Amino acid sequence: MTTPKSKNITWAHSAIDHETRVRRNQHKGAVLWFTGLSSSGKSTLSREVERRLFERGCHCYILDGDNVRHGLNRDLGFSPADREENIRRIGEVANLMRDAGMITLTAFISPYRRDRRGCRDLVPDGGFIEIYCQCSLEECERRDPKGLYKKARAGQIPEFTGISAPYEAPEAAEIVVETDKLSIEESVAQIIAYLEAQRILQANGENGQDLERAVNS
Amino acid sequence: MTTPKSKNITWAHSAIDHETRVRRNQHKGAVLWFTGLSSSGKSTLSREVERRLFERGCHCYILDGDNVRHGLNRDLGFSPADREENIRRIGEVANLMRDAGMITLTAFISPYRRDRRGCRDLVPDGGFIEIYCQCSLEECERRDPKGLYKKARAGQIPEFTGISAPYEAPEAAEIVVETDKLSIEESVAQIIAYLEAQRILQANGENGQDLERAVNS
Lengths: 217, 217
Prior knowledge:
homodimer
């Protein structure tokens, strides 16, 4: 690298392209978009996948209600327009982090197909992986760790997804995890296997050149 | 790590804390907030710093007009309220990326002290580093690579910072770079030296344990 002699030269683009980041990280950037009913296991599963990815040396991060609703999206309420904008911004941020080379996991109910489609459309090249945490409403209500379903049934929470507001199940999710049938261990394994098959992760024992070939193919 | 036998257990927090990320990355997460007049060198300098950081093995990413205005903030115009919201969201995203372990560089004029203060307040523990690209208006106008100052002087661009809208220079920026006096090379060296002195980066030749001690101190 040489430094220009002129003080006034400007670069048109970032100095580092995405492929260079992938080679450094030894994995691709991606958005793992978890969707499903409240209590369907999105948070639990995404955090366990994050942990497993980190242990494998991946750069990964979770966007969830804790770090988004009270920060970036703290100006948004729960009107239909605000809910849509909430998901839109999450999709944009997840895609920026993917562009930065990270595997970004998002854990939001995100009940509407159109909103999820909007987020998918931001992400190039198969980098958007929709993970449907499929769990019967009955099982979600049985779990109900925060008593939300109980309150929704009592009419104390308006427009509660699955009770008084719709959940539009994915029609073509990359991964459907039956969280009411599988253990966490089995669910994580299903997701990791998919990421390896798609060459987002290296399978254990592969070396960097293999991934580089996959990236460039 | 053991996997819980119950399918229904939930974790309260992310599986990976920030310090663990720092140990893995061998550098701290940080927000490098470049501010200054149009043509003061923010983009040029931030990109060169990004390149230098990447070459040292850091995880880094630039947020700028290219990847923010047309994405996350595409719903925002140029009214005073929208300009403020533009900077607020950039600060939130930069802080998320910092939390994820990255050194995030932002390159926006960000002319108002209050807005920059708001972004600073999001970031814990000295992780917000304001970098003032100090350059005389005369020199910025002389550079004017896109002819914006010329148009602003002709009244064709309303509320142009430095001409018809104020720029509130930082009063206590962590770093003041005199971009009208220093070469790019010198400017980059000044910033890197600061990051090493603050133990955000390891000085060359240090090992991981030194950084770990710095993190825990």
